[in-house]
Amino acid sequence: MAEVGHLVVADVRERIAAARAIAVLTGAGISADSGIPTFRGADGLWRTYRAEELATPQAFTRNPRLVWQWYDWRRGIIASKQPNPAHVALVELERRCAHFTLITQNVDGLHARAGSSSHLIELHGNIWTVRCTDCGTRSVDQRVPLPLDRGLPSCGRCGGVLRPHIVWFGESLDPAVMAAATAAATSCELFLVIGTSGIVQPAASLALIAREAGAWVVEVNPERSASPAVHCWLEGRAAQMVPRLVTVTEPDGSSC
Ligand code: APR
Ligand code: ZN
Q: Which residues keep their CB under 5 angstroms from ion ligand 2?
């Protein structure tokens, strides 16, 4: 159902306002309005680079410098962008809703920069966190650009080579992280899916888990995603649509 009429948006807004437990799943599409390329869109990152060449443990073993150059380039793009009104609206929703969980597939850190905090689950890691390949120590490294001309980032504790703390293709998610996301999906009344193609598992299964647990599933996306779990598709860009769902009046001041 491609609904962008005021009526349906007002209905979703009322359900969001009334819900005591909300879970949100975001994908690259919520950051598209901040100017960060998605993965599978027309100008998507995977259109330009083959994932197998970059975002896999094998690629890192084969050519860690190339992988770090790609991530350094992505970090440079992200560092120059800002959270958009959709990220900010979700911070407001987190403040208002009694039980709120924001689950993101994004590693760009924009939700945290917008102010989303303790109720944020980063399923695929974070591009600003690095992890030692030897001792596993994690730390935050926000240098842009990285001094790759001086060699690969190395661990302050043991000297091991650092890697991005990001879940690569072929790697499993942290079971504790996925368990927390699943718990949020099974205990919410409303599950909001924003800007994801619904292709990559296990993140894509969360909407179905929520629906089967009784939640109403709403999707915000300019295109229909692959998710079979959606009750209501709001056709639109996140930066325009999400604030309309969280504020109590339409942007033109009309009430809902
Ligand atoms: N507002 C909302 N949605 C948008 C916007 C926008 N302005 N622009 C694009 N989209 C939608 C697209 O229609 C698409 O459905 O965002 C989605 C982006 O899909 P993908 O590029 O596949 O990104 P995502 O779903 O987050 O990918 C999931 O795949 O490569 C892995 O780890 C990576 O986390 C990523 C995962
Ligand atoms: Zn180490």
A: 132, 134-135, 137, 155, 157-158, 160
